[in-house]
Amino acid sequence: MADLVIRNLHARIADSDQEILRGIDLEISKGEIHAVMGPNGSGKSTLSHVLMGHPGYEVTDGEVLFEGQDLLELEVDERARLGLFLCFQYPYTIPGVSVASFLRTAVNAHRKGGPEGTGEPIRIPEFRKKLQANMELLKIDRSMSSRYLNEGFSGGEKKRLEILQLGMLEPKLAILDETDSGLDIDALRVVADGVNHYAGPNMGVLLITHYQRILNYITPDFVHVLVGGRIVRSGGAELAHELEKTGYTGVVPQEV
Ligand SMILES: Nc1ncnc2c1ncn2[C@@H]1O[C@H](COP(=O)(O)OP(=O)(O)O)[C@@H](O)[C@H]1O
Ligand SMILES: [Mg+2]
Predict the structure, then answer these.
(1) Is-above-0.85 flag for pTM?
(2) What is the pLDDT of residues 28-53, one digit of tens each?
(3) Which of 93, 158, 174, 241 is most deeply buried (CB count within 10 A of its CB)?
(4) Pocket of ligand 1 (CB under 6 A)
């Protein structure tokens, strides 16, 4: 069985009748990169929020299993400790909390009851070493670690920080929602290089994007087209190139 199994997932915004996800089937295993592409409003962010347990959404049918466990039963922090990671489309600012201290808190929260099972906080020298190695890899200036989280960060800096967080937490499944939006080409490359570096046999990636652009730098194993809350087509990396030429109308069956 795949690590993440989504079966017939239906979801709506809490306290509304409007169904946004209308029967999603998707399986992702570690070592695989899946891109989900779709026009604005098709339900891409809803899918990532439902997977992470955002309280604003309600699952009305279907199931989601992660390593055989019913993910939908779990609280947000439990999902994170299981190894799920979500990069937000719109990262938040935490004034007064430095990047380094935020990351150390996040790493320690993961260790508590996490797969390492030690419950012991990471030792400071070990943390510093790991942080430095990851910052170098992502070409993040050293001074950034003492700045306050996202305060006054440019779009590109915020995205780099998200990828840094990913590198520090080493999730089993990384969900990247529109990580390419608002990035100039250099920042896009850094983010893509980071994802390519961290992707590997121990991590699966769900890359959610409206645009094909980031897929010039990250080659997905599978591409899925999400329209109207359903996956209307799946294929390999070539499907993304086809979409670029034809637009979504070209690949979507007429009745959708
Ligand atoms: N919290 C919300 N309140 C009201 N409408 C929402 C909310 N979240 C999503 N929607 C609606 O659900 C649909 C899907 O949104 P979303 O999942 O954000 O799409 P995408 O990420 O593909 O652009 C849109 O029509 C959007 O307006
Ligand atoms: Mg979105």
Answers:
(1) yes
(2) 999 999 999 999 999 999 999 999 89
(3) 174
(4) 13, 20, 38, 40-46, 56
